[in-house]
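Dear U.,

For the methods section draft, I wanted the exact inputs and outputs in one place so we can describe them consistently. I've listed the two proteins in the order they'll appear in the manuscript figures. Please don't edit the token lines directly; just add comments below if something needs changing.

First protein:
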Amino acid sequence: MDVIREIAVRTALFLHLDALVSLSFDETLKWDQTESFDFEGEAITIRQVHGRGINKPASLAAALSITTSFTPFGQLPPYEDLEGPDGYPRYKYEGTDPNHYANRALRSCMDFGLPLAYFLGVRRGVYRPIYPVFIIGDNPNGREFTLGYHRAEIGMDTSSLSPAERRYVIEQTRRRLHQPIFREQVLDAYASACAVCQLRHSQLLDAAHIIGDSKPHGDPVVPNGIALCKIHHASFDQNLLGIRPDYMVVINAELLREIDGPMLKHGLQEMHGQLLRLPRRKVAYPDKARLEERFDEFRNAS
């Protein structure tokens, strides 16, 4: 293997992705932006064109990228890429044969410490590139690889992580992998509109957690999320706006008595007593038990 060339191609790819991502407000790329790039006059395939898979360009000895396709909430993914008990994400083998050429290509990344780009499907035909990632472990019995974020993690015994190390890994995994999917699934469920005011500009929308992701029941799943514009998200986080388990919006009593400009009047005070705009599918409705827990927090803060 020409390791110097392998590293040079990856460095060029990451710079190429940096340039593309810098032009995207949400750090996502469309599928046709991730087909190939030019390296010294050669078109290098960035990822498999047909969705999920391990990509090893013909001119390289090791894999260059991996892809996980987008799965809408409530549907089963074609492959079950999971988070392991150590907090690190897993990536399933291509097929069942550990010696399949694609699996060997990923194993070569681990053997030589080569970084990859991970294309995470967040909407149909739209991907969040995460890079660099490393193959830090290989489990032939489970037919899966362990992904890490640092070259130094290759070969480490992840089962021996201290509680503090495991919390760090889980936070990294949430931030890089779970949160982008959570955002897109929530916005998709709410048809890219604020559930309080119906603002439809996705650049101004967030996927708000009902229960924070650092708390029990704070899982990044659609029933723990609500699509909110940035002002209503901030108000929700600061307990100036609450949502009852019957989906009614409640504004902090002191805020209702204030006199200020039109943003306060029309953006917050007039929302008091309105019903939340719910998703089309009942399976995506906000979880009432979580809403009740969060509304208790709102009342205690008021």
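Second protein (the one for the lower panel):
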Amino acid sequence: MPHLLVTISGHGLGHLAQTGPVLQALRRHRPDLRLTVASSLPEVRLRERIGPDLQPVSRAMDFGFLMRDAFRIDHAASARAYQDFHAHWPSRVRDTADWLRAQSVDLVLANAAYLPLAAAAEAGIPALGLSSLNWHDLAGFAFSGQAWVEPVLAEMLAAYRSAAAFIVLTPGMPMAALGNTLRVGPVAQVCAPRRAALRERLGLAEGERTVLIAFGGFDRPLPMTDWPLPPGLRWLVPSAWGIRHPRVVASDSLGWPFGELVASVDALIGKPGYGTFAEAACSGTPLLYAPRPDWPEQDALVAWIAEHGWARQVSDADLQAGRLAAPLAALWAQARPTPPLPVGDEEAARIILRWL
């Protein structure tokens, strides 16, 4: 029985959205696979995306960036966190290598942390990376020109290069510096739409449309109490926002899996992030998104969804002010493209199987 240890970044839910379908594909090929997942994400989220029979370990291997909200990096706090993380880098790698040895694993798969890759090399365990991004490229962009970051970037890059391969999901960053990349297609959990069931659950009138707002696991409450909320639209938002309005529904109170909601609503509003973009495009769901200026991964995401998705950009100012009726109408007026096929889970699984 091969033992695979997977680390999944807790920086939002996109890394889990990427990894879950790949692990499910692996299970289809190798039902005897022993799977351990190390992550700081809630166990209920892991089981929802991966399955009930995994072995979760609450252990953070990375933090990505510390965020002010769903759209903005806290640059000062993130810089301090990276300097602390690398202050005693060799001993951190050795300690993690000792932990990996104690797990008796045959292969390590990391999305998108570089510490487990460096530790696996130290322990003599094969390792693979998997993601649409890597923290080396993002940190180089975020902290460009700051003297402290150069030795940190060198350690990050050496860790990523120590992997046997880094599987880059489409759409993904270029990652030219890594030198060990293998590219696969899109990865997305695509659910069957249940539009009629959703309309009945919400008690929608004829012609009324549903709009889901979700920011990939990060909180950014919008001031909807100040918005113009025109008739004809029913808004699904996180219950944590505390919005009380007859045309606003707490999405998490419905008890539906997120993928089913994405496939069943008339539009999704979000930010550039892999899970949001890939699942909307592959589900054929119209997407309205506001840009993330300090997140370089968005360049690959935006270019890809412009070609393959049903999407339109809205300014952050219009998003904050709720000036969304006209952008939504323009989005729905666009021609519907043929949804891309999420073939990346099988392609990535075949690569991983070669190492198992």
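Candidate sentences for the figure legend, describing the second protein: The chain has a mean pLDDT of 96. The first strand starts at residue 3 and ends at 8.

Thanks,
Y.
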